[in-house]
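Entry:
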Amino acid sequence: MPPIALYHSTSPELARIILKDGLLPMGKQYVHLSIDINTAIQVGRRKSNKPVLLQI
């Protein structure tokens, strides 16, 4: 069974673009989705000290 929700964390600037255009791999093969909030936030901190968390 797949999880009910997945999470994607990104910078505030990229979050605006994602909300406008959708979640896209941006030149990569895949979009990174996490199965829990803590992991998503850790991944998002690679792009911003205050990442935005999106629930998919």
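The mean pLDDT is 94.
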